[in-house]
Amino acid sequence: MSKIHRRVPPGPRGLPLLGVALDVRRDPLTLLSRLAKDYGDIVNIPLPFRNRILLNHPNDIERVLVIEQHKFQKSVQLKAATRRLLGNGLLTSDGALWRRQRRLIQPAFHRAQIASYAPVVVDRARAHMESWRDGDVRDIAEEMTRLTIGIAVQTLFGIEMKSEAIGVGQALGIVSRHEMDRLRQPIRLPRIWSTPEQRRVEEAYEFLDSLVYRIIAERRARREQGSDLLSMLIHATDEDGSQMTPKQLRDETMTLFLAGHETTALALAWTWYLLGENARTELCLHEELACVLGGRAPALEDIERLPYLTALLRESLRLYPPAYIVTRTALEPFVVGRYWIPTGTTVLLSQWVVHRDERFFPEPLVFRPERWLEGQAGQLPNYAYFPFGGGPRRCIGQGFAEMEAALALATIAQRYRFRIVPEQRIVPEPLVTLRPKHGIRVTVLAR
Fold it and tell me: What's the pLDDT score for residue 322?
C-alpha cells in the first residue's frame, strides 16, 4: 500500500488570500480544464476561506458518488446558491428528508409512467413547430425552453401553460447568473442592499414563485386526485398523518418544475447547435429517421430502432453536459490517492473535464456520434461518462429526460433543420446548469 501523505495535493498557488478566485469568476470551465491538465487527477484549488479538491479520475469519482457516498453530502456552496430558488427540495435536501421525498416522487418516473408521457412529448413538439416558417431566425435555446416547459407542466403537473414560457427562461437566467456570480465573488455584498441588480433578481424570483404557487392552486382547484406528480404531492400523507406544508409543496414543485424542463431544453439546444455545425452528422440522422419512421410521428418503441439518434444525443451530452459539475462536502475525513482530506472539504467532480479527457475519449473535442456505435461505451471505466450524476442521487428523471429528448429531436428533425447564424459567439456559461450565454440564433429551414 502506498504511503498516505497529510499534505495537500498539488495545485496552483494563486494570489495571497484570494487563491484562484478571480480565475473562477472570469472563466471557470477553462480553469478546471487547465488544472486537470497541469496537475493531474487530484488537484487542490486554493480559494478564500476553504480550498476545494478537484477529482478527475473515474475511479475516484465512483468512490465519492457510489462506494463511499455515505461520507458526503450536497455541498454547502450549492445549497447556498440554490436555497432561495429551490428551498429544501429534492435536489438540495439530505438524510431522512431526502429519502422520504425520493420515495414519494419515484412512482412518477417508473417505466410505465414515463411511457404514458411519450405521446404528450410528440404532440407538444408538433404543435410547437406550427408557428415556425422557412427562413425564420430564432433563438433555438429559447424555443427548446418553451417546448420543454409545456411538456413538463402537462406531464408532471397535469395542467396547461403557454404565455409565461418565455418569461421562465429569462427569469431563470437572471437568478442563476446572479447566484453563481455571487458564489464566485471573493467579497459579497449583503442581500438586503437594494441595488438595481438585486431588485431585478427579486422581481425574477417573485415571478417564478407566483407561477409555481399558481400551478399548485390550479391543480388543487380540480379537487380530484389525478395520476400526475403534483396531485400525488398534494395528497401525500406522512406516517403521522401530516401533509406537506405550502412551503414544502412549493419547494418540491419548483425543484421538479425546473429540473423537469431546463436540463432537457439545454441538451436539445446544444444538440441543434452541434448538428447545425456538422452537416455530415445531420445527414446521417435524417437518413436514419427516413428509414425507420418514413415521415410518421415517432413513438416510444421507435427509440431503440434509432441507434444513431441515441448516439448523437449521448455525444452532445458528452461535449455540453447541462449538469457540468457535481459538488460534495465531506462529512468525515477521507483518503484519495496518497492524500488525507479533512472533514468539511468540498470535492468537485466535473463532467465538463472528464468527458473531454483524451484518455477515455480519443479526439475529445471532436463531435463524433459514431464513437458510441463502435463499442466505446463498453470500454469506458465507470464514471468516465456521467451526465446524470451517479449513485443513490443519480438524477431521478434520467429516463424521462432521455425519452423526451429523443422523441422531440426525432419529431422536429423530420420537418426542419437549422443553420447557425454566422458572426455570433456561442459561449457556454456555467451557471447552475450549462447555458449558452447569448443564446443560439439559428435560421430555420424547412425540409
Answer: 96
* Cβ within 8 Å of residue 28, ≥6 positions away: 184, 430
Residue 176 class from Cβ within 10 Å (0-12 exposed, 13-18 middle, 19+ buried)? buried
Low-confidence ranges of the chain (pLDDT < 70): 1-6, 161-165, 186-192, 223, 225, 237-242
Identify the H or E element spanning 52.
Answer: strand 52-55
Q: Check residue 198 and report its DSSP letter.
A: H
Give residue 422's pLDDT.
Answer: 95
Contacts (Cβ under 8 Å, ≥6 apart) of 112? none
Are the C-beta atoms of 400 and 117 separated by less than 8 Å?
Answer: yes
The three cell numbers locating residue 142: 429559447
Place of cell 422520504: 100
Does an H or E element contain 443, and which? strand 441-446
Looking up cell 504511503 gives 3
Distance, in Å, from the CA atom of 132 to the CA atom of 336, rounded to the nearest integer, reads 53
Query: What does the pLDDT read at residue 44?
Result: 97
Distance of alpha carbon 189 from alpha carbon 46, whole angstroms: 22
CB 325 within 8 A of CB 348: yes
Number of Cβ within a 10 Å radius of residue 414: 21
CA distance 323 to 355: 12
| Cβ proximity of 135 and 443 under 8 Å | yes
**Cα 55 to the chain's mean position, in Å?**
20
Cα separation, 431 vs 214, whole angstroms: 27
The CB-side HSE value for 75 (13 A sphere, CA atoms) comes to 19
Model pTM?
A: 0.91
Consecutive H or E run containing 105: helix 95-105
Q: Kind and range of the H or E element at 329? A: strand 326-330
| Concatenated DSSP letters of 419-436 | EEPSS----EEESSSEEE
**CA 172 to each of CA 94, 167, 178, 251, 380: distance values in angstroms, whole numbers, following the listed order:** 24, 8, 10, 15, 35
State residue 108's pLDDT score.
Answer: 77
For residue 56, give the nearest of 263, 275, 350 by alpha carbon: 350
Whole-angstrom distance, CA of residue 293 vs CA of residue 345: 51
Q: How many CA atoms within 13 Å lie on the side-chain side of 379?
A: 10
